[in-house]
Amino acid sequence: MASPSHYTRGSINVWDFIRDQKLGFHRGNAIKYICRAGHKDNEIEDLEKAIHYLQNEIEHLTTTGERVQNCLSSFANLFDEWESDPEMFDR
Fold it and tell me: Can you give the pTM of this predicted structure?
């Protein structure tokens, strides 16, 4: 099945670029909507969709980063407790 013309402008298919760069779902969709903006349907709507996907990706990265930081902080606190009283964990 041939790709729609709004995804095949230029020398590389947008889908092929997204796969080649291993961009994942949200970043890939942002690229897709940016590339088709002005070539299909409503240009502003396509750009807003790209922003939506990027905002969702940023939120995910921020939340994931916070969870990692919380885990590392908990581990550091546990280590500090162990360091001050190693026998405490043998009880």
Answer: 0.64
